Amino acid sequence: MFKQSIWREKNALLYFSGTILSKLGDKFYIIAIPWLIYELTESAASMGMMFLFQTLPFIFISPIAGVLADRLPRRTLLFVSALLQGTLVAIIPTLHMLQVLQIWHVYILGFFIACLGAVFSVVNSTVVPQLFRKEKLIKVNTAFQFIDTSSVLFGSMLAGILISKIGVYNVLLLDAISYIPIAISILFLTFLTKESPSIIKSNSWDQLREGANFLWKHTILGPFTLLVLIVNIANGALISMLVYFSREKLLLTSEEVGWVYAGAAVTQIVAIFLVNFLGNKTSHIRLMIINLLISAVGIITVAFSWSWYSLLVAVAIQSAPVIMFNVLFKTMRQRLVPSYIFGRVNGLIMMLGLGTLPLAGFLTGIIAEWIDIRIIFFTLGLLSLLVTLKFIGLRNLKEVEEEEKVTVVS
């Protein structure tokens, strides 16, 4: 993975060293927030509502963040959004210490934390081609995914243990502190091109429409974005209700939930090494389709879980292929989209790709009050499987693969 290593570059050391600690804290948040919501309400509907507030910003903020990324210095956007996220996370345990914390506080703070997270995610993905040369992009993306997934392994184990030892509020405080290192590291990055790639004279709406037209007319990125939009219905249901399913149906402890996330992360790490190896030897598009099919099978398998270790296996089957797909899809758009429009296209892809997540999570929480969550997981997993199989039937993969080769931006 690290032959002709990118780790000897200053940008890589700064970019990834800050990311390691921030991602570790971020995984604390993933477990701590739904755990807190369950403690406050013990309601599937409330957890679905929180998931809605946390994911809606990725629909509405992502395209705006894309426009900002093409107009403003990207370093500034990354620095400010990171610091503000950490500040807002710290407010939750502060309100608890003041004995005034209510569920609506968590909803509102979670919404604004997600808004800033959407800005950071879009700009952070957009800036990668300005920090590293194109021939190193897949190595950079796999390294980033390796760090992210490794943080799931260690972050999930630590979160589960720490929640039981020091409480969920102190875990959130640690998460808030984790945003500081990445903010500092951003200040010392060296850009290979201008931080703000071009001076744009048109208004924001015209800029956004230009990005939408590029994506709509692109015969590779457009269809794949639509496919992700559909299959994420099942992913949104699983992500939003996994902690609820673990506690309500399997009666797992916080440590056991942590082991589920951590164990699945081990397989995700294997998937990262695998995609780095296969990505240079076979078709990215074919690998992406295979990964979506396997992931759908994993969601179906979750419905039949009976213990923490069976759930671990099922989540691993679902999540490892998603990791591989994300690396390949991110690399694909970094290679296919010109720099001057990349922020807008990237923001739109994130908006559309995540578009069904909040609604799916919210509705799953509501429906789970009436229908067994196992039935919901099975039905949505099967739907995802059938849609992906239908996609293969509609498009000739060999033609699409050849088209990708001739449309790569030099």
TrEMBL record:
The keyword DNA damage does not apply. Pfam families: MFS_3. InterPro entries: MFS_dom (IPR020846), MFS_trans_sf (IPR036259), TM_effector (IPR010290). The chain crosses the membrane at residues 12-37, 49-69, 76-98, 104-123, 143-163, 169-192, 224-246, 258-278, 285-304, 310-329, 341-367, 373-392. Keywords: Cell membrane, Membrane, Transmembrane, Transmembrane helix, Transport. It comes from the Bacteria. One of its GO terms (molecular function) is transmembrane transporter activity. It is a multi-pass membrane protein. PROSITE patterns: MFS. It is found in: Cell membrane. Residues 11-399 form the Major facilitator superfamily (MFS) profile domain. One of its GO terms (cellular component) is plasma membrane. This is Major facilitator superfamily (MFS) profile domain-containing protein. It comes from Sutcliffiella cohnii.
